[in-house]
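Re: the request from the purification team.
They wanted to know what the chain is likely to look like in 3D before they choose a buffer screen. I agreed to run a prediction and write the result into the notebook, where they can find it.
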Amino acid sequence: MRRLLSAAARAALVVDQRLDRPVARNRRGVAMLLVMFTVTILATSIVEFVYNTRVNLYLAQNHRDEVKAYFLARSGINLQRLALAYQYEIARDPNMGLLASVMSRSNFQMFRFLPYLAPIFTSGQLSAGDFGEVDLGRSGASGFGGFQGNIVMHDVEAETGKINVNLFASQRLDQEAIQRLCQLVFPGEYDSMMGIEQQRTIEDRFEVVAAIVDYVDPDSDLTVLDENCVASVGGAGNEISRYVDTDVEPKNEPLVSLDELRLVPGVTDGFMTQFGDHLTVYPIANKQMYVNEADFETWYAFLCSHIQGLQEDVGFSACVLPQVQLRVVYDALVLSGYVALFDDPIRVLMLMMGGSDVTGEVLGGGRFMPFSSNARVVGTMQGLLDGSPELHLFLMSFAEPRWVQAYGLTASIGQGSLVPPQRPFEYDLGRMARDVETSNPEIFTIRSTGEYGAASRTITAVTDLSAYPQTRTERILYWREF
C-alpha cells in the first residue's frame, strides 16, 4: 500500500512538473500583455493631459491678452475723453492768461490735435511730422512707464452739423430736416448708390428720404414727397406697403444706432458709404451746417440750396441746370479743399512758415481752423470764391480726389492751369450766414483700439459734453465693445 501511494505521488509530481511548464510560460505572456496595455493607457493619458494643459495654457494666454487689449482700448477712450474735456478747461482757467484768451478767440479745438498728442501718453514720443520728433524720455517722461502693448486712438468725429434722423420721430413733420436730406441725396449721380439700378422697391431719390421718415415716425401713414421735396401724410396708404417683400417692419420710434437704417428699403451699403457720415441719431441742438467739418457733398448741397438771381423756374434745386451745376461743383471743390487744408495742423503751420502769397490769402491772421466765427463765414467764403485761379488751384489740391476726378478737373490741376466757369447766379449770403454753425462741437464719436500680443479690442463711444462747461460732467450716449 505504501508503495502504491509512493508511486502515485511520483506520478502526480511528474504530471505537475509537466503541466507547470506551459502554465508558467502562459503567465509570463499575460504579464507582458498587461504591461504593454498599461503603458499604452498611461502614454495616451499623459499625451492627452499634456495636450489639454497646453490648450488651457494658450486659452489662458489669449484671455489674458484679450483682457489687456480691452483695458488698453478703454485707456485710449478715457484719454480722449480727458482731452476733449480739457479744451473747456483751457478757456475757463484764468491762469492761462493771454493764451486762454487767444485760444478762446480762435475757437481752439483740442480734438484736432489729438493725433499728435496721443503718442505722448503711450510712448513719451512727440512727433511733429516734418518738424521732427522729441523724445520726452530724456527728461524722465516715459508714457505709462512699464507700458506694454499698443493703443491706437482713431480720429475723433464731431457729430455737430449732421442731419439727425431722429427728428422724424415726431407727429409733426420736420420739413427743414427733410429738405436738408433731400438736398444731400438730390444729385442724380447718386442713384446707383441707392440701389435704383437693382430695381428695388424704392424707385427715386426722394422715395428713399420718404422711406427713412416712415421708418422713424410714430404713425403708420405713408409719407409722400413731391418734386419739390414737400412732404404730405395721409390718404396715400400704409407705410407697411414698402416692406411687402421683406420680413422687416418700420420701427416707428427713435433709432439707437445709425446702422438700423440698413433695414430701410432703398438704403443700401452704397447709400451708407456715401451718406452715413452726414447722418446721426444723437441729439444735435441745431440744424445749421457745421462749416468746419463740411466735405464736398455737404458744400454742394448747401450751395445748391442758397442760389438766387435765376430767371428760370427750376423747382427744388437750381443745380438741375447744367451751367449752374458746373459752377456749384467748382465752388464746392474750392470750399471743401479749404476745409480739408486744416485737417492737419502741422501742415498749416508749415504753410504759415512758408509765407507764399497764395497761402497768405488763406492763412492770414494765424488761423488754425477754417472759420472761427459765424460773422466771418460769409466774408471768408466770398474771398475764397472770388479769389484768383491760382488760389483755387491750390485749394482744390486738398479736395477729395474722387470728386476732382469725377468732374474732370484732374488734368487741369495736374497741369497747373484752371479756368473758372462762369457764375450765372448769385448766392443768398444773408441766408447763408443764418444757416451755418462754427461753435465748438459738443457731441463726439471716439474710437480706440487696444493691441496686446495677437489680441485686439476696439471700443466705440459717443460722448456728450454739452453740459460740461457748467457742471463738469459728461454723458455717454453710446458704448460698443468688439
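For the purification team: Confidence is low (pLDDT under 50) at residues 97-106.
Please add any questions underneath this entry.
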